[in-house]
Amino acid sequence: MNFEDEQLKQLLRSDKGPEPSTLFLESTLEKAGFHSKRLTLAQPVLSGSKLSLRPPVFSQRSYGVLLLLAIAGILLVTSAIHTEEEELHRIDTLSLSTLLVL
Amino acid sequence: MKLSPMPYSQVKNDADLALLLAARSGDEQAAAQLIRRLSPNAHALAWRMVNNSSEAQDIVQESFLKLFKTAAYAARSSLSTFFYAIVSNACLDFLRKRHTEPLDEDEFEQFTSPLDFHPDHVLSVKQQTGQLQAILLKLSPRQRLAISLWAYNDASILDIAHTLEIEVNAANQLLHRAKVNLKLLLKENHELRR
Q1: Chain B: residue whose CA lies nearest to A5
Q2: Which terminus of chain A is more exposed, N or C, with fewer CB under 10 A?
Q3: Which residue of chain B is at minimal alpha-carbon distance from A15?
Q4: In this prediction, does ipTM exceed 0.85?
């Protein structure tokens, strides 16, 4: 580069005009979506949400339904046994009656 | 085996590229560092083109958003050159929309004769605030862009050709005309002040 060109370059570089505003950096980062990412990550901490390592397997409502099913099951089994006993008793009575008739 | 040291420009470009990759994967600190590195020259370039600091700032900001999100960098030139090309095209788009200056012609008279350029011509414009910008605005936008890229980013003829999407020969002539015309305007300015 010759001397004149070098002078021209120095002249242009010596005067870069007004500088970008102080908010330029923050504003550009925000528009590029960096700030929203940071806030999203910080939100669980800031909101003070309860510490929960994993979601519960059964909720209280599920336990209630399970208990009802268990009670219903026990009742069904009990009534089935009771019916069977009555049936056996009836057969016994019939057998005895038949024997007496004979 | 003796390893030859890597050129400084290569090291700088590798650092810029690493920052861009980190920024694209969500690293805010890397993005901030890249903005700090590239924005001063980019703002100077945009301001020279549109002659308004606030609009220049908007153009540079939009260019950063493109760089972080969509622009495909093919590593044919340095990252800074690639970024200044984005800024340059945004400036030309802006001027095209504003319709204040013809973009596709160099309306300024082209001087080919050698000038008796003198260091005093530079000194006199340095003493006047805003005078240099007033002089540069007399150049056509494409000449202004070529000389700004050359001055602020050490852009080569090839870089200017890539940025303006013209032949290398045309870029060479454009930069030459820009320099000659600027020297002439500086000389005129000096003579007017005497």
Answers
A1: B179
A2: C
A3: B132
A4: no
